[in-house]
Design a protein that fits this description.
mainly beta; Jelly Rolls; Elongation Factor Tu (Ef-tu), domain 3; 3 domains; six-stranded antiparallel β-sheet; flat
């Protein structure tokens, strides 16, 4: 008898169970893949957000920090004889030029606002009839100093004098230590000179003088090194009412350690906006215009007059870079050569039609004036009044301009950068943009950028955001002293 094997299939219940397990497994897999995709998408959005923030921050900082290049000039040094102004200090009366009076008994030092950058100098002062421990120092940039002090009070008979130096200590006194000096007398004037080499001295040297009854005499000739440049005056007085007067310096060049000014060139129009600064904030703080000279090209002094009917100007060939047809330049007259007293400044935006070199030291530019009807880059232009100005060679510089830059927020929430006539998007989904100016030439830029929101959150309360926040103090706009050049 032949026996056949029997085969049995899945029952309906078994099939339903298998299908249920498969569905659960597939659903779990789909959920896992979906979660991974959303996580990866969110990570990508955040990464893109951070890339946007970083690139926007870098561009903004670079444009702000470079603002005003070649469009400003620092205070020029002076020369000759000047009364010294001391920096404000609550322990002293510094309100009178050339005088310093102690107001209390606190241990305090007063600093001159004037310094001598190099060369020889002569520092002069006269102690008052009450001068307790009146120390007057000529201090170098390295911290070394030469000092002369007197103690005088007619009421107690004090009339001491001492000369002290960082390198040598006490070198002369009225009481027998070091070189013997005759005591101080009312009306005596003292001088510390940094003097040029002579027949006895092979280098610059220090010398101390007294002027008594109109007669000048040498108190001491120093053998110590001269304090390093720049040098300034420092003063100390121990008692209220002590004072020194007629404080002055004769030197060249004389630099100013404070109260300097950075002088700005008169700036052109950018579209419909008269630029008042290399950084001009507009739109209630929501946009900014930035202007600077080309960073690869030196400003060049003019060699010929550029008047209202001129089409050419000769200038000294710059040490760095050159000019070409199509470049925009700003012809600048600060008004005169004294930054503290500008008179009728003017500037004219022009576009170079041709450039040539008549000789190795001279560049000749043929210029087309940029007016409102034909602005440079379609945006920069000067008024007819400025174009009518006569630019004399002694007071005129020619500056090659970099394309002006504008940052603004578009209606579709993009941070837009306009360089010349070229528009580019720096960041998308910008929720906030603001520019402010602090006292002085310090600027703050802030922006809030949101992620795309498809895989993160797309509502205003939950969306992922990143912030740009920085403060810029453009060097060209704050270069007040030639000591910083």
């Amino acid at each position: 008898m032949k026996t056949s094997s029997l085969q049995r299939g899945f029952s309906l219940i078994e099939l339903l169970v298998a299908m249920a397990i498969t569905i659960v497994a597939v659903a779990a897999a789909v959920l896992l893949i979906t979660k991974f995709a959303r996580t990866a998408g969110a990570y990508g959005e955040v990464s893109t957000l951070e890339e946007q923030r970083g690139s926007a921050d870098t561009l903004l900082r670079a444009d702000f920090d470079g603002a005003g290049f070649n469009l400003t000039r620092p205070s020029m040094p002076s020369a000759g004889k000047e009364l010294i102004q001391f920096l404000p200090d609550p322990n002293f009366d510094t309100g009178t030029l050339g005088s310093l009076t102690k107001l209390n008994t606190a241990a305090a030092w007063a600093y001159s606002s004037t310094a001598v950058s190099s060369g020889i100098s002569l520092w002069t002062w006269t102690p008052s009839n009450v001068c307790h421990d009146c120390w007057t120092y000529v201090v170098g940039n390295d911290g070394s100093y030469a000092a002369l002090a007197i103690y005088y009070d007619q009421s107690d008979g004090g009339n001491a004098i001492v000369i002290y130096e960082t390198a040598a200590g006490t070198v002369g006194t009225s009481w027998g230590q070091g070189v013997t000096l005759s005591p101080h007398a009312p009306g005596d004037t003292y001088e510390i000179g940094i003097e040029a080499p002579n027949g006895q001295q092979t280098t610059r040297f220090l010398r101390y003088y007294r002027i008594r009854n109109g007669v000048r005499s040498i108190l001491y000739t120093s053998t110590s090194p001269v304090p390093s440049s720049p040098q300034y005056l420092l003063a100390y007085q121990s008692a209220a009412g002590s004072a020194i007067n007629n404080v002055s310096v004769i030197a060249a060049p004389i630099a100013y350690r404070s109260n300097n000014t950075t002088e700005f060139a008169r700036l052109p129009f950018d579209g419909g906006t008269q630029l008042t600064s290399p950084v001009t904030i507009t739109g209630g703080g929501n946009s900014v215009n930035i202007l600077s000279g080309d960073k690869a090209t030196d400003a060049a002094p003019a060699l010929t007059t550029f008047s209202s009917d001129s089409t050419q100007i000769d200038l000294k060939t710059p040490a760095r870079a050159s000019y070409a047809a199509g470049d925009a330049v700003l012809v600048v007259d600060y008004g005169n050569t004294d930054p503290s007293n500008p008179v009728s400044p003017a500037s004219a935006v022009c576009v170079i039609s041709a450039a040539s070199n008549p000789d190795s030291q001279t560049t000749r530019l043929t210029l087309t004036r940029a007016r409102q009807a034909n602005p440079a880059w379609g945006r920069l232009w000067s008024s007819d009044t400025d174009h009518a100005h006569t630019f004399s060679p002694s007071e005129t510089s020619v500056i090659k301009l970099a394309p002006p830059v504008t940052y603004a927020l578009s209606t579709d929430s993009r941070l837009v950068r306009i360089e010349g006539a070229r528009v580019s998007t720096v960041a998308f989904n910008v929720r906030q943009l603001n520019f402010t100016q602090a006292p002085g030439n310090t600027f703050t830029a802030s922006a809030v950028i949101a992620a795309e929101g498809i895989e993160t959150a797309n509502d205003s309360t939950n969306e992922t955001r990143s912030t740009i926040q920085f403060t810029s103090t453009p060097r060209a706009m704050n270069l007040a002293s030639n000591q910083q050049n």
